[in-house]
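Priority: medium. Attachment 1 of 2:
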């Protein structure tokens, strides 16, 4: 188009020059014979006037043509220029089961929660007189928030409304400086692998017997965690759970974990120690349900034991090898009793194995504990989710000297379906063989079995 305008412009210029020359030229013959040819002169004058008007019009068109050419060039340059960059977004929103909002300066905010709904059956010998049969419960119904703050600080707050009660679970403020994390508030203490693995990621409907029997729970205190390479060090000094803060109990815990990766395989070796000093006149009680939580019956139970303090030592080992995993722990719990009473020692241990039936799935692991299972082919994306089977032997010995709390040898099996990252359905069976059970049968027998079957529907965000 630019070339066409240029040619037109040259032609227009030539026409103007030709008209100007024609206007300036007067034939000599007509000048000499002006009187005789007055009509011709008049006609020539009119022609000159018309040609002058045409020249003016051509000049105007030439000016308009030049302006059009400039406008076209401007449009072309504007179209070729890149658009101005969009302003940077000051807020980011990611989806991790729930929206996680990240703002300027290191701020973040994420709501969190979980629902565990359990149901099933417990079958004990009729002559024990124990309440058995069908049971159900909302095992957990938690809501909370967590996030980060500028300067390396973080926060987490969560409460549970299951059982028609409002219980604070986690409530802490943390500070992270390189490999060191300092936390102040209520949280799980560093007692063993099974307790520190969230109930969202466990292999069975309930944790092993040692975690419940020996009273593992969240406590208010100050904790330090130092992670470097394959080594994790954890220690804490604590008071007690929020519900029991009127007492003067205090304690300290420590745990060390070696967690190397060998190719795609994850190994875990750990040890923990715990000491609790109890206020004068305190007592402790160790007992355990038959696998499921919706029954209140405990067939092994020490009853109340007067105590000045508690000591504990645990060993833990685990490994993840593709679709296969193994885990096991041993735990010794000792009670220091007041003068005139012998100290008491109790023991618990478990060993479990598990395997994913679906190709490409495996247990998660993070920070010295098992973590979330993320199906390779989740439901909703053309897959069937992750299917997993697990087996566990669970031992608990609550007998020592004059204290006869009973011995439990349990055999558990579970089938777990994980349709998506944040949903699970668990089917569990447990056979508990008891010796010295606290409830005798009609003929006085304290060695018998109790069967339990439980189902859990679970969702979290």
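Attachment 2 of 2:
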């Amino acid at each position: 188009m630019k070339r066409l305008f240029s040619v037109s412009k040259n032609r227009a210029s030539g026409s103007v020059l030709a008209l100007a020359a024609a206007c300036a030229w007067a034939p000599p013959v007509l000048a000499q014979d002006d009187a005789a040819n007055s009509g011709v002169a008049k006609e020539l004058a009119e022609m000159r006037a018309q040609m002058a008007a045409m020249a003016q019009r051509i000049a105007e068109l030439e000016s308009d043509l030049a302006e059009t050419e400039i406008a076209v060039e401007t449009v072309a340059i504007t179209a070729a220029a890149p658009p101005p960059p969009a302003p940077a977004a000051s807020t980011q929103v990611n989806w991790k089961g729930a929206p996680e909002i990240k703002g300027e300066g290191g701020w973040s905010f994420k709501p969190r929660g979980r629902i565990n709904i359990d149901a099933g059956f417990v079958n004990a010998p009729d002559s024990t007189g124990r309440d058995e049969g069908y049971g159900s419960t909302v095992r957990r119904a938690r809501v909370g928030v967590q996030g980060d703050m500028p300067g390396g600080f973080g926060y987490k707050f969560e409460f549970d409304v299951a059982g028609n009660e409002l219980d604070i679970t986690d409530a802490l403020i943390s500070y992270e400086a390189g490999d060191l994390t300092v936390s102040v508030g209520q949280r799980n203490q560093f007692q063993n692998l099974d307790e520190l693995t969230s109930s969202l990621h466990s292999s069975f409907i309930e944790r092993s017997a040692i975690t419940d029997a020996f009273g593992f729970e969240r406590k208010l205190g100050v904790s330090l965690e130092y992670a470097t390479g394959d080594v994790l060090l954890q220690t804490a000094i604590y008071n007690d759970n929020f519900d029991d803060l009127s007492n003067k109990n205090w304690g300290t815990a420590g745990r060390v974990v070696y967690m190397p990766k060998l190719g795609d395989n994850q190994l875990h070796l750990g040890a923990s120690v715990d000491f609790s000093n109890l206020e004068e006149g305190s007592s402790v009680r160790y007992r355990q349900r038959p696998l499921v939580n919706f029954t209140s019956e405990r067939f092994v139970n020490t009853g109340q034991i007067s105590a000045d303090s508690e000591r504990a030592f645990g060993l833990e080992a685990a490994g993840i090898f593709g679709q296969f995993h193994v885990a096991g722990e041993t735990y010794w719990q000792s009670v220091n009793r007041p003068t005139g009473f012998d100290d008491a020692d109790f023991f618990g241990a478990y060993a479990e194995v598990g395997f994913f039936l679906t190709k490409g799935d495996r247990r998660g692991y993070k920070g010295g504990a098992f973590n979330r299972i993320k199906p390779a082919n989740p439901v909703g994306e053309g897959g069937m989710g992750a299917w997993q089977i697990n087996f566990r032997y669970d031992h608990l010995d609550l007998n020592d000297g004059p204290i006869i709390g009973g011995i439990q040898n349990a055999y558990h099996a579970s089938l777990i379906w994980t349709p998506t990252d944040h949903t699970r359905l668990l089917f569990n069976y447990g056979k508990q063989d008891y010796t010295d059970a606290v409830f005798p049968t009609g003929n006085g027998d304290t060695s018998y079995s109790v069967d339990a079957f439980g189902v859990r529907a679970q969702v979290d965000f």
